[in-house]
Amino acid sequence: MPSLPVSRTGIMNSPTKVANPPDSSAPAPIRRRQRARKACLPCRLRKRKCDMQHPCSMCKTYDYECQYAKDNRPSAAYMQRTGLSLSPGSRLLHNDNGESDERMRSESPVSRRTLHSHTDSEGKDRSRSDEILKPIALDRGILDPYNSRYMSQNSAVAFPRSLAADLQSSTPLPLHSFAYHCSLRPEESGSSHVALSSIISQEEFNVYADVYYTAIHPIFGFLEHEHFAERCGNYWNGSYQSLEFSAVMAGVATLGSYFSFPTGHPREQDILRYAKGVLEDSEICRRPSIDQVCAWLLRSIYLRATTRPHVAWLASCVTLHLAEATGLHHDVGAIILTTDSTPGHSISSDEQGLERARAVFWCSWTVNMLTAYEYGRSSVKLDSITCKQIKFTPGSSFANLVKIAQMIPPESANCDRDELLRGIQAMKRINDSCEMITLTKADFAFAFYRRLRLLRQGIEKAVIADIVTLGNKSVSAAYILAQQNRPWWNVLSTIFQYCCVLLSVDTSETLSHVAWVLETFEKVVELLGRTHLAVEALDTARTLLRDSVKKKKQDLSLLEIAASGIDQTGQVEDVGIDWDAVFNTYPPISLAHDFIANGMLGDYKSGL
Question: Maximum CA pair distance of the chain?
Fold first, then answer.
């Protein structure tokens, strides 16, 4: 019994009936193949009727990527002659020669594919359909904008909806986790939260928000000031009081309070716990949103400045995972939306809203990359990133911070020495737009040096000179920030790491800077109020210096033992060697002419 043909959806088609022999008197049958060629590729692949619009009704209904194959025959005159559109938001058009007519921004990390022309044969035409549709089906994710849930199209959660679309269901299924578990227990209930206004007043909040936008926003510029101020106004007048946005406001207030050093809000820790309670609420966690990403990002920055590296790294990973969960790593044109609904907490579809979303993603990615690489942990690896780069203004410190993160080579078991050397050169080329950027450049130059040191392949003097240049600038920048009461985390850590690098390189050029660095270090510790970690770091640097001196004294004693055979005048003792006999092996120069003239030089050499 012949096997049933299988469709591309994995469902067996019914067997076709055997056609009767054609009657010679009957009119010629209509070539249905011509009509099939007019259909779009998704309709042809699924054997659906196509209305030949762009996009057609089926593709519009089921969120397919409506595309038409190139065909230069007269019957296909309505088709586009210039090429194919990969996606409405980030398309890459190709002409008949395969050359690009429209490209995305050069900074975008979207992978680019060149689509080749095809023949009119049915077999190659179907392979052409596979060539176009398969990569798109794998690359494009699906996003529910109302619940801000992103996933790949191959997800078990997305599969029922995709199947319903293939079956032309009259009621398309929602993006829902059907049968995800046995549902034997109820979900954890949410927590109750006090109002943020009961902890901090509007006047106090405005003061610390101004500090935030003065000290922090120029470097981590993901919260647009005007947009944030407008939403804060709506929150305080009661027209919009979302718990998620209140967590964002709490994050801004805590950072503003921290950078109001040496003063700050008396209930800074209460504001911090408020934001943490909202972010860890089980009911709120069920629906990730861009506000949650912003709140976690603010929390990551605060934890990096105030607590242990493990906690800061963990928070940065959660932030980037939430950015992926909300689809921020893709531009809107690169994903499928389940609905056109755009509630207040979702990403706005206008250009300003898209730019805000890109800023949030790239800042989240940067914080995770910097924290992980400095600490020696793995960063979050996203499968694909199609989010475009931000439209940075010239001299932007935020732009320079993202550049620093993008210069970091990937961590691997086989570390590439050339990549590390290029990284140091790249740090040197980035502009010192502010003191924080100067410190961060030095931090990662030191990070590259630590990895080069482990390779034990030697480091050129020019590379060491570049590291010293970056280090000296960072010490001056740290002292300026300490005087301005801007307690960034690397005000202390960069100077301490620079001391370690100078002692590790251990050359006259590097050791000549140790005294000045330690002197500045002491001044910074005093300006910070001699905190526990500051005094601990200074004492450790002094201990390392004493250990270096001790080691050099031990080396010097070994050299003194080796030089014990030399007397006080520096003369070498006579050990009875007849130096005249050693150096008078050849005849005097005055006899050379006689030797050569009489042909005796050859006999003399043969006798040696």
Answer: 129
Asked if residues 482 and 522 have their Cβ atoms less than 8 Å apart, the reply is no
Q: Name the nearest CA neighbour of 176 among 162, 195, 161.
A: 161
Q: Where are the beta strands (DSSP E) in 60-212?
A: 141-144, 149-152
Please give the backbone phi and psi of residue 538, each rounded to the nearest 5 degrees, phi first.
-65, -45
Confidence of residue 245 (pLDDT cuts 50, 70, 90): very high
- Residue 321 sits at the vertex; the CA angle it makes with 491 and 269, to the nearest 5 degrees, is 50
- Could you tell me the sign of the dihedral formed by the alpha carbons of 286, 288, 293, 294, in that order? negative
CA angle 345, 346, 350 (to 5 degrees): 120
Q: Report in angstroms the alpha-carbon separations of 138 from 131, 132, 133.
A: 12, 11, 9
| 407-562 maps to CATH 3.90.930 | no
Helices vs strands, H then E, count in the chain: 24, 3
Whether the Cβ atoms of residue 149 and residue 288 lie closer than 8 Å to each other:
yes
Contact indicator for 368, 316 with CB cutoff of 8 Å:
yes
Contact in structure between 299 and 306 (CB atoms under 8 Å): no
As given in the structure block, the two tokens for residue 74 are: 């007269």
| Residue of 388, 311, 317, 313 lying closest to 90 (CA atoms) | 388
Domain with CATH 1.25.40 in the chain: 407-562
pLDDT digits (tens, 9 = 90+) for 301-352: 999 999 999 999 999 999 999 999 998 988 776 666 666 544 444 566 678 8
